[in-house]
């Protein structure tokens, strides 16, 4: 299956009730699944498309919104505001002639209607760390008025000198705040800061998150956090189809999906790597590891910190050779061998057999 054959978001199968209906179909268009999440965030389906850096652009976010979910644009490390604004413009153009899905414009002008569903995700440790980080964050809130922002790694950040938190600043502009957490302690902090929703990322997830020994499985974490709060709670990690969503709805209020949306033709992910995603992989092919980040941190100016330096990965040549060995053994290889040169070459060629990129792809979608 090539990129052109990958299923568009508007045809994403739900099949929760054994039906062949699809998101966005005429028979399904007006149905709203009423959960605390869909009510609070004014959308029809209890689904968030996760803000994956380099993958979740304006087109993907808009198509998810049009289909009834909450589509997120990835701001990522947020080092260049112009890149984010370009994706926001793409989102607005796609949404311009399409009625917002179950939203109300509130006090927003007609010219802002196409932004009524705009939602943006940020990587916490880096997004606000630049000299203009907080200023640019407030600019986005003030001038684009997103419906929601999402932060993780960590989710709660304060301005220097005991200033406002990222949650408080979002609320000043009537933007809802979603915190992604990987542990009960992180969830307690998010609740204490009065966030509007919590995403519980389990160790099955493909994206960056807590190391396996520090986090919890998806359903166990989501179930426990749901009992701690009345705000919407969503599950993230290993959820790729309607049956998985049905399982999540048994313990919480919805699901955030990443890899499943990478498989769509609307994503901006590398087509060569998408080919690996849609191959017939099994759960035995997946590993959660800090190894790729240890290598990548030698090559990048932005280093993923403890305890978030862990990703879900499909096994490849690099992981099979180094997984199970100590961090010091890997560091010795980085320092004394040509491992970094091989890795850089693999990245440049988008070679999933060696490079980092395949580690981002963590689950085969069930189509």
Automatic annotation (TrEMBL):
The EC number(s) this enzyme carries: 1.13.12.16
GO molecular function terms listed in the Swiss-Prot or TrEMBL record: nitronate monooxygenase activity
Record keywords: Flavoprotein, FMN, Monooxygenase, Oxidoreductase
InterPro entries: Aldolase_TIM, NMO
Pfam families associated with the record: NMO (PF03060)
Organism field: Skeletonema marinoi
Name of this protein: Nitronate monooxygenase
Residues of the signal peptide: none
């Amino acid at each position: 299956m090539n990129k052109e054959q990958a299923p568009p978001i508007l045809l994403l199968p739900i099949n929760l009730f054994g039906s062949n209906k699809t998101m966005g179909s005429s028979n399904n268009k007006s149905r709203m699944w009423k959960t605390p999440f869909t009510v609070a965030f004014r959308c029809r389906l209890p689904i968030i498309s996760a803000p994956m850096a380099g993958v979740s652009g304006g087109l993907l976010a808009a198509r998810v919104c049009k289909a009834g979910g909450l589509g997120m644009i990835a701001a990522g490390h947020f080092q260049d505001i112009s890149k984010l604004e370009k994706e926001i413009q793409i989102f607005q153009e796609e949404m311009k002639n399409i009625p917002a899905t179950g939203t109300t414009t509130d006090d927003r002008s007609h010219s802002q209607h196409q932004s009524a569903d705009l939602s943006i995700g940020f990587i916490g440790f880096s997004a606000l760390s630049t000299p203009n980080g907080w200023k640019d964050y407030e600019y986005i809130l003030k001038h684009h008025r997103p419906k929601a922002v999402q932060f993780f790694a960590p989710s709660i950040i304060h301005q220097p000198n005991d200033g406002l938190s990222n949650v408080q600043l979002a609320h000043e502009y009537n933007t809802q705040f979603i915190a992604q957490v990987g542990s009960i302690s992180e969830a307690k902090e998010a609740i204490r800061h009065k966030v509007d929703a919590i995403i519980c990322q389990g160790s099955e997830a493909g994206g960056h998150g807590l190391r396996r020994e520090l986090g919890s499985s998806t359903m166990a974490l989501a179930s426990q956090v749901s009992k701690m709060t009345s705000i919407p709670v969503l599950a993230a990690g290993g959820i790729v189809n309607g049956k998985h969503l049905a399982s999540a709805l048994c313990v919480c209020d919805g699901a955030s999906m990443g890899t499943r949306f990478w498989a769509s033709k609307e994503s901006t992910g590398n087509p060569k790597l998408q080919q690996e995603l849609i191959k017939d992989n099994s759960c035995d092919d997946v590993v959660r590891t800090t190894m790729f980040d240890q290598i990548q941190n030698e090559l990048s100016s932005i280093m993923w910190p403890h305890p978030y330096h862990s990703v879900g990965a499909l096994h490849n040549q690099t992981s099979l050779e180094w997984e199970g060995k100590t961090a010091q053994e890997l560091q010795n290889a980085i320092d004394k061998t040509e491992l970094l040169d091989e890795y850089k070459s693999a990245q440049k060629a988008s070679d999933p057999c060696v490079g980092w990129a395949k580690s981002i792809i963590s689950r085969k979608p069930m189509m």
